[in-house]
Input
Amino acid sequence: MTRLRALARAGWLPLALASWITACGLSQPSFDPSGPCTTDGRTPGAYPDLEARLLPSIVGTGPGGQPNVVLPTTVDSGRSCSAKALSTLASHGLSELRFAGATWDQGGGDGTVSAFFTTPPGQPALQAAWMEEFYETGARASTKTENITITRPTIGPAGEVFRLDTINDLSYQTIVVWPATDGVRVVILATRVDPNASKPAHDAAVELAVTQSATLAQP
Output
């Protein structure tokens, strides 16, 4: 948890996802998702239609080859309205970004987020390239990121994706972005760097989360 909090403080994760990564009290019970978009807000159930588009569980292989179904630690949704939260997205004419995210907090700095981003009526249709710019700009602006690499691999049903990898505060960090119907999907995965950490295991977890997120049926 400590390293995930440090990751959020480093400033290159957007406000919309920092709260999911840290898994600590940034929800706003008084947030009115139907009101004017004047302040940023996030709380479970804010946008049920967006939460319905999230990965409900990560299914791996357990002992004896049996399925291992892991439910998310938290599920919530919200919107970004401020210039700080929107960052580079504002340059594309956006004044409101809506999102939902499911978080698997594995403790000790390890965690996974599967998220869906979109824009409401009256806003420009969200483009995957804008989210790529959003994350890359934040990563390069941080003083804590090292060895930033950007690739465009093909991952299962997601097809060709944008993948940003870096080491941030002794943590492997990966962000994957790809277009989806009416929005953009994002997977973020953090694995602490220690003698027991495995980069191949980190990469396998990224592929699993992206593949399962991309296989969701579109409403």
Summary: The chain has a mean pLDDT of 82.
